[in-house]
Amino acid sequence: MRMLRRCRAMSIVSLLLLAACDSGGSSGAPGAAGGDTSAGGLDGGDTASKVAADGTITSGPWLGSGFTATDPGAATITPECSAGCMPPFVGTDFCMTGKVTGRPDYTGFAMLGWNVNQPAGADPGTWPVPDTGGITVTVTNMPSTVALRVQLQGTNPHDGADRWCAPLTNGKLIPWTSFKTNCWQGGTPQNALTPGTMIQQGAVMVPGLLTDLAFDVCLLDLQITP
User: What 3-state DSSP class applies to 141?
Assistant: First the structure.
């Protein structure tokens, strides 16, 4: 059974819920939700995560609670984390399932996220983006024909200037320099993530399409490369 520990500092998750619609679905252009469909993910197989333990994500310098996020009506997600994650994640399972709502403006979305600097019992902190390197994210993604995004967020994800995204190239390095604001096709402005920027959260995003999209996404591995 897929289960998630209650996230601490739910006000941070609430910020993400309000911001994600803009970052995930406000592409306003056909195909912007997809990008490179070869980057979608691995189908099926073992879903045990190398970085998750009872809803806590640990990878290199990153440590923090995991959560899911959407906006009212933008998707249905299990587990649901708008007021504490139910059911809680357990063991090495870190997955979300559900359906993204199809909308003419592509504003449906679902996110599987984590805080990047949150020691046990503490509120989420921030982490500075290095001058070099990047992040490698490996997921299982059903259906794999729909490309995902990786999103990084600062302390104010209400502000489009404080969140950056990039197409998820499954199991391959995504340089920090590849992250941009409004990263989808036609999105503006597309400002690059700069070294020293303080981020608070990372997430895997299922962007919305014109029609409903069922999804089943699991985070298998997460690596920070200097």
Answer: strand
Q: Which tens digit of pLDDT belongs to each residue from 48-103?
A: 999 999 999 999 999 999 999 999 999 999 999 887 789 999 999 999 999 999 99
| pLDDT tens, position by position, 188-208 | 999 999 999 999 999 999 999
Which range of residues forms the domain containing residue 48?
10-225
Name residue, tokens 């999804």: 215
* Residue of 30, 69, 39, 24 whose CA lies nearest to 182: 24
Token pair, residue 80, equals 């649901």
Q: How many domains does the chain have?
A: 1
Cα separation, 206 vs 100, in Å, equals: 8
Q: Is residue 2 part of a domain?
A: no
Is residue 113 within 8 Å of 16, Cβ to Cβ? yes
- How many CA atoms lie less than 13 Å away from 74 in the CB half-sphere? 27
Strands (E), 146-200: 149-153, 163-167, 173-175, 198-199
Q: What's the pTM value of the predicted model, to 2 decimals?
A: 0.83
CB 104 within 8 A of CB 210: yes
Q: CA angle, corner 72, sides to 36 and 29, nearest 5?
A: 30
Residue 189 in domain: yes
Q: Is 57 contained in some domain?
A: yes
Residue 164 lies in a domain: yes
Could you give the angle at the alpha carbon of 18 between the alpha carbons of 13 and 24, nearest 5°?
100
